[in-house]
Write a structure and sequence with these properties.
The complex is a heterodimer of chains A (446) and B (112). Chain A has one domain: Orthogonal Bundle (Ammonium transporter fold), CATH 1.10.3430. With 446 residues, chain A is mainly α. Chain A has 16 helices and no strands. Chain B has one domain: 2-Layer Sandwich (Alpha-Beta Plaits). In chain B, a hairpin with a 2-residue loop joins β3 and β4. In chain B, α1 packs antiparallel against α2. Classes of the chains: A mainly alpha (446), B alpha+beta (112). At the A-B interface, α8 and α9 of A face β3 and β4 of B.
Chain lengths: 446, 112
């Protein structure tokens, strides 16, 4: 097998770019929650990186990209369990110019960010250990099958002709549908929507959005699995759609409220990145611009739906990722053009066939993700208790779940004074009992 | 001696400080505070959701002056802090019983 070093280098670099998206997402979300929950949010994202990194190389990679079980296109077998046969050509990727292990690494980063995206819907109210268990099982029974259906050349949606260049259905719709399902199971945050829960650090949100935008070039242009003309199309389309979506979102704000906001600009950029993800290797500049603009406008309007239906999708994973993913997936049916790659859509003389395939993929992936995620969340909720206690929720995840606070008033001086009267004890020797939890007796249930 | 307490709009601090320097005031304490009066908060919008914030950020200035200059100092603060829009703040004056300079132990007007 002859590998191309340029292609290999680009996909390796892209893998690192995509990994960096999850810390970016953590800050995008972390800035939007209240100050008492920011560490809880960051922790969920970082632990998702760790859990999925392990689960992926041992099990779920093989289920997603291993030889198809029975030729149904539903799931791969355990041929690649624990990265067995690491240099064997992946079924359906015989023309690949990169080593299989590079593909394993690149796809792993997608598997990581998908459950991380869910944390925005369920923000401020999940217990930590059940969340870890949920992520591990979810990436095996929800992510791996959908990745197989859509990304694997032997998957049933791939064979049907549904197009998803970089994961609009596998990553974004999937995470959006799952997020709504779990938010339904665990219920809304106490006080929502009557109590104000504004973002505690909008600059974090913009920083996170910038990291996402940067990393997304790996996500989309890397999905060409080579450094070539197609990756260049994906790169330009990604940036153009994101720009159009940012402008679309803040235009809606300007018209509706009279003022454009920075949070709106960050949200619009992410909505555009989501929507162009499935389409970036299949559309031309016109398609990318319209998909971006449509996503910015539609998502800006969609985020207020949660108040109408009373579902506390805290950070709008449904409104941005589910809706944005659907917008992108369906608009491929109109704007897909063989001049870039793939099939022609409705507006490029391809008729309704592609749109039909896209609709099937949207319904299938969305339904499977929602239903299985709901069942899994329900089981975890009944057995382990998915939701924090009322006291812990009021106290905030940072101290209640992780025994830390993000921001120290007075540079920590006030607390060091409070912990002990003697100057010697202030130098950082841990005090026993710890400062927080003074009111709790040992063994007392939280 | 009088303790003068002034609540002002944060961006008016430089103006007020310059005015007080011209009056011969040599020190003050400033803190960031939040509160509301007739302005009664403001509205913030995040992703289309409106939040009524009842507390508005302000600065609180505290300074001790001798009785004879108190009126002029108050006047200087009021003139400098005024924008003639709602939310300009308040100034009030209290009697000070005792004042001690920590470094020297000087008491009363000498410690100002």
């Amino acid at each position: 097998m002859h590998y191309n070093s340029g292609d290999t280098a680009w996909v390796l670099a892209s893998s690192a770019l995509v990994l960096f998206m999850t810390p970016g997402l953590a800050f995008f979300y972390g800035g939007m929650v209240r100050a008492k929950n920011v560490l809880g949010m960051l922790m969920q994202n970082y632990v998702a990186i760790a859990v999925v990194s392990i689960v992926w190389v041992f099990i779920s990679y093989s289920l997603a990209f291993g030889p198809d079980i029975g030729g149904w296109g539903l799931l791969g077998n355990l041929h690649f369990f624990a990265l067995a046969h690491p240099n064997q050509t992946i079924p359906g990727y015989s023309g690949s110019t990169i080593p299989p292990l590079v593909f394993v690494a690149f796809q792993m980063m997608f598997a990581i960010i998908t459950p991380a995206l869910i944390t925005g819907a369920t923000a401020d109210r999940l217990r930590f250990a059940p969340f870890v268990v949920f992520v591990a099982i979810w990436s095996i029974i929800v992510y791996a099958p959908i990745a197989h259906w859509v990304f694997d050349p032997n998957g049933w949606l791939f064979k049907l002709g549904a197009e998803d260049f970089a994961g609009g259905t596998v990553v974004h719709m999937n995470a959006g549908a799952a997020g709504l399902a779990i938010a339904m199971v665990v219920g809304k945050r106490r006080g929502w929507p009557k109590e104000p829960m504004p973002p505690h650090n909008v600059p974090f949100v913009l920083l996170g959005a910038g990291i996402l935008w940067f990393g997304w070039f790996g996500f989309n242009a890397g999905s060409a699995l080579g450094a070539n003309v197609l990756s260049a199309h994906a790169f330009i389309n990604t940036n153009t759609a994101t720009a159009a979506a940012l402008l679309g979102w803040i235009l809606v704000e300007k018209i509706k409220r009279g003022k454009s906001t920075t949070l709106g600009a960050a949200s619009g950029a992410v909505a555009g990145l989501v929507a162009i993800t499935p389409a970036c290797g299949y559309v031309d500049l016109w398609g990318a611009t319209i998909i971006g603009l449509a996503a910015g406008i539609i998502c800006a309007l969609a985020v207020s739906l949660k108040f109408k239906v009373g579902l506390d999708d805290a950070l709008d994973v449904g409104g941005v990722h589910l809706v944005g993913g659907i917008v992108g997936a369906l608009l491929i049916g109109f704007f897909g053009t063989a001049a870039v790659s793939g099939a022609n859509g409705l507006l490029y003389g391809g008729g309704l066939a592609l749109l039909g395939h896209q609709a099937v993929a949207v319904v299938a992936a969305g339904t499977y993700s929602f239903v299985v995620s709901w069942i899994l969340a329900k089981i975890i909720h009944k057995t382990m208790g998915f939701r924090v206690s009322a006291d812990d929720e009021l106290e905030g995840m940072d101290t209640a779940l992780h025994a830390e606070t993000a921001y120290e008033l007075g540079g920590g001086f006030l607390r060091s004074l409070a912990s002990s009267g003697s100057p010697e004890a202030r130098i950082g020797v841990p005090q026993d009992p710890p400062l927080i939890d003074l009111s709790r007796k040992p063994g007392e249930r939280r | 001696m009088k303790l003068i307490v002034a609540i002002i709009k944060p961006f008016k601090l430089e103006d007020v400080r310059n005015a007080l320097t011209r009056e011969g005031v040599v020190g003050m304490t400033v803190s960031e505070v939040q509160g509301y009066g007739r302005q009664s908060g403001h509205t913030e919008v995040y992703r289309g959701a409106e939040y009524q914030t009842s507390f508005v950020p302000k600065l609180k200035i505290e300074l001790v002056v001798s009785d004879d200059v108190a009126t002029e100092v108050v006047e200087a603060i009021v003139e400098a802090a005024r924008t003639e829009k709602i939310g300009d703040g308040k100034v009030w004056v209290l009697d000070v019983e005792e004042l001690v300079r920590v470094r020297t132990g000087e008491r009363g007007a000498e410690a100002i």
